[in-house]
Amino acid sequence: MSGATVAGVVGQPVKKLPPINLARVVPDEFGVWSEVKVAGPVVNPQVPDLVGKIHDEVLDRTYVNRDGDRIMLSLAYGSDQRGERQLHLPEICYPAQGFKIETLSDGTLATSFGAISVRRFTTSGTRQEPVTYWRAMAGHVVRNDLDQRVVQLDLFPSGHIPDGLLFRVSSIDRDAAHAFKVQQQFVADMMSAVPPKLRQRLSGLKPAGAT
């Protein structure tokens, strides 16, 4: 029994993946989009007391395009996705901040490098805010517990701890169809603007020729 215990401890992941410096690597201008400074921070529906406990870094920005469409971008990165440090899902955090989830669906978001598996929902109450988001662990989009387990097993031989990133875009818009269309274009433009390795860390989209 003692031998099995030692083996279990030795086999535990101990190495962290290279961190992502969100403020440095995420461009503040790309395509037709430019960051716009707002009066105060982007309103973040995540519970403030939890942000510092489960995230190593959070980046909130607002972008505007040439047509005047505004996108609120919120990225949360955690270097350790084990146990209670896992990123919290937006559809859970939004109601905790006074929002009501009206619709919720899974789908894909098209880019020039492939499709990203995403979740979309709309809110009411505090404001009408269509939201698109996904979660990535170690450069792979994860949709459920099974996906997370597969990533953990892939990392196990190297001894790496799975990290995680929550990528969320939203708009204050009564027209959900229009909002989701603009969000899709924003994400596609950003994926075209960032280097291949960063693109995979952010969205799971692999570089050309990668398996």
Give an overview of the whole structure.
By secondary structure, this protein is of the alpha+beta class. It has a single domain, classed as Protein Transport Mog1p, Chain A (3-Layer(aba) Sandwich), CATH 3.40.1000. The chain has helices at residues 2-10, 22-25, 48-54, 90-96, 145-155, 176-193, 196-203, and strands at residues 15-16, 29-30, 33-35, 57-64, 70-78, 99-111, 114-125, 131-137, 140-141, 160-161, 164-170. The strands form two sheets. Strands 2, 3, 4, 5, 6, 7, 8, 9 and 11 form a nine-stranded antiparallel beta sheet that branches. The longest helix has 18 residues, at 176-193. The N and C termini lie far apart (40 Å). Residues 1-10 have low confidence and may be disordered.
Structure at a glance:
With 211 residues, the protein is α+β, with helices and mostly antiparallel strands.
Q: What is the global morphology?
A: globular
Report the major sheet. 9 strands, antiparallel
Strand composition percent: 25-35%
Helix-strand makeup class: alpha+beta
pLDDT below 50 for ≥5 consecutive residues: which ranges? 1-10
| Global mean pLDDT | 85
* Highest CATH level, the class: Alpha Beta
Q: Helix tally?
A: 7
Per DSSP E runs of 2 or more residues, the count of β-strands stands at 11
Number of domains: 1
Radius of gyration (Å): 18 Å
Q: Distance between the terminal alpha carbons, to the nearest Å?
A: 40 Å
Q: State the CATH architecture.
A: 3-Layer(aba) Sandwich
CATH topology title: Protein Transport Mog1p, Chain A
| N-to-C order of helices and strands | HEHEEHEEHEEEEHEEHH
Q: Report helical residue fraction.
A: 25-40%
